[in-house]
Amino acid sequence: MRLLWLAATLFSTPACQGREPEPATEAAVPAPALTGSTLIGEYSPATLAGRAPGVPLVGSLVRHSLKVYRLTYRTRTPEGAEITASGAVLVPQTMEPLSVISYQHGTIAPSSETQAPSYYASGTDVWSVVSILASTGYVVSAPDYIGYGASKNLPHPYEHAASLASASADMLRATREFCQQQKVALNQKNFLLGYSEGGYATMALHKLLEEKYADALPVTASAPGAGAYHKSAFARHILQATQPLNFLSSYVWVLRTYDRLYSLKRPFSFYFQEPYATRLQANPFAAVPSQQSQLFAPSFRQAVLNNNDAPLAAALAANDLYDWKPQAPLALFHGTADDYVPYFNSQDAYEAMQNRGATQVELRPIQGGNHFSSAAAYTLGAYAFISRF
Questions:
Q1: I need a labelling partner for 152 at 20 to 30 A (CA). Which of 84, 109, 210, 253 fits?
Q2: CA-CA distances (angstroms) from residue 316 to 263, 311, 375?
Q3: In sequence order, which residues have a C-beta less than 8 Å from that of residue 141 and are 6 or more positions away?
Q4: Could you tell me if residue 19 is left (phi over 0), alpha (psi between -120 and 50 degrees) or otherwise beta?
Q5: Are residues 89 and 57 part of one domain?
Q6: String of b and e for 225-246 (b: at least 16 CB within 10 Å)?
């Protein structure tokens, strides 16, 4: 499908001979996103079928061979600088007009940078279950995000809604441009999938596409899984927890990202007790305890719980994604016993969206599932959901 550009230029007509025309007024026209492509490989149905032994029945879905490419494209950092980013695009080998899935990956530690989609590394979700889903008849657009692949020299803006959304949207634009170049027949359907940080990115992308690209990149349906959509409530949950929390190193990353992007400019000792403040200053990914009371500075903890930290509260609120009204169908998948991203994130989103009048939002609890055991059920459930459209 040819990408539909949102362009309109208004010209005034001179009222009489010799009068200079008024300056033209132009609507914002997004520049082409795609800058390059490289074939990674072509994979037969037999090869693909054996790639997801941990997800029962998925291998039986395989229909087509795949060509996998690494794309580079233009996007912008949270600060507004234009950069080159990358991602993978998976193209089924068929003459049928294809829908597109934008797949947003979960958390990748900086030390595991080669797990990003554009490396197409063995054992990753894009290499395994996502490739199998693509082979059923979907082109898959899989952004690396800023901070991985072609942009690995930059810090990843972890759990930052706006840049996760824009990097994913620009990769989706680049994917459609690439398919037009390669004469891959596409229809107008765009599906959005992702789990964990990918679920959060999927929600952010859905919101951005409906706000900015409603005509050019319409959302057909989305199925985010286990995302931390209610950042403000999640912060309070963490800072009043008495049980061990195994994800606190990830939350350190969230705080550092927001401190940087929202110019809070606070020392590590503002957030963290010793000896962890010093250790994290030296290595932001150093090990931390699982008890929040041992990690966070009491003054910081009380300021958040008493709602006295206005700058941080504003940063968290800027990244809340639970309270808006989606137009396209949306299914929220979440394990009810999620021990990393609590279930209330999806419950709160479902209730807030219903209160705003959304009529096509579904809550899909995965009963008894934790953050990791729910992933397989999410994959099958999300595929079944988008197959309806």
A1: 210
A2: 13, 9, 26
A3: 87, 89, 100, 101, 102, 103, 168, 171, 172, 174, 175
A4: beta
A5: yes
A6: bbbbbbbbbbbebbbeeeeebe
Q: What is the pTM of this model?
A: 0.91
In a domain, 2, yes or no: no
On whether both 99 and 162 belong to a single domain, the answer is: yes
For residue 165, the model assigns a pLDDT of 98
pLDDT-derived band at 31 (thresholds 50, 70, 90) equals confident
Q: What percent of the chain has pLDDT over 70?
A: 92
User: How does pLDDT run across 125-147, given as a tens digit for each residue?
Assistant: 999 999 999 999 999 999 999 99
**Which residue in this structure is represented by tokens 């606070």?**
266
Per-residue pLDDT, averaged over 340-351, amounts to 98
We report the CATH number of the domain holding residue 371 as 3.40.50.1820
Mean pLDDT to the nearest integer, 266-288: 97
Peptide bond into 275 cis (omega under 30): yes
The number of domains in the chain is 2
Rounded CA-CA distance 67/52 in Å is 18
160 in the same domain as 113:
yes
Whether residue 325 sits in one domain with residue 295: no
- 142 and 99 in one domain? yes
Q: Are 377 and 269 in contact (CB under 8 A)?
A: no
pLDDT tens figures, 358-384: 999 999 999 999 999 999 999 999 999
146 domain-assigned: yes
CB 89 within 8 A of CB 41: no
| Domain span including residue 165 | 34-229+321-386
pLDDT grade, residue 13 (50/70/90)? very low
